[in-house]
Specification:
The protein has 145 residues and is mainly α. The chain has helices spanning 6-35, 43-78, 84-111, 119-125, 128-142.
Length: 145
């Protein structure tokens, strides 16, 4: 096997981190859809709360942090000058991080019995990370700017 460079290893770790983070960003709103259908303080409510908390704490939060660490390492290595596509990609990643924050807030609302959003709302917001993911992958592959 040829000499594997540290950049390639970081790129692998970045892709795995992004995949893990995206899985959570796509799955958590779907859990919220079903959580809307159960009575507050029921056994199902408690189960959904535990699932949501563990998904955020043990998968999504670490994956997001690692995505940023590995991504910024690679961005520094390739340089920022003349890479408008990279600036746009980073902007989209920050939007995903904001969405992650909203998911965390909504999870806390469920945990405190104060969810005000509907099943339909969560079905719609479930599409946000998909659209951003498609745009981000297109920017990385095509580098149009």
């Amino acid at each position: 096997m040829e000499n594997i460079e540290s950049y390639d290893i970081v790129k692998i770790l970045h892709i795995v981190s992004v995949m893990s983070w995206m899985a959570g960003l796509l799955y958590l709103p779907r859990i919220f859809v079903y959580h809307c259908k159960v009575a507050i303080n029921s056994e199902s409510d408690k189960l959904f709360q535990e699932m949501e908390r563990k998904l955020l704490r043990y998968i999504m939060n670490p994956a997001m942090i690692l995505t940023f660490i590995f991504g910024f390492y690679m961005a520094i290595q390739i340089g920022f000058e003349g890479s408008f596509w990279l600036h746009l990609k980073i902007t989209l990643v920050f939007i995903l991080a904001g969405f992650h924050g909203l998911l965390s807030k909504w999870r806390k609302n469920f945990a405190s019995g104060k969810n005000k959003n509907s099943e339909k709302f969560y079905r719609l917001v479930n599409e946000i990370p998909t659209v951003i993911m498609i745009a981000t992958v297109a920017l990385v592959i095509l580098k149009p700017f």
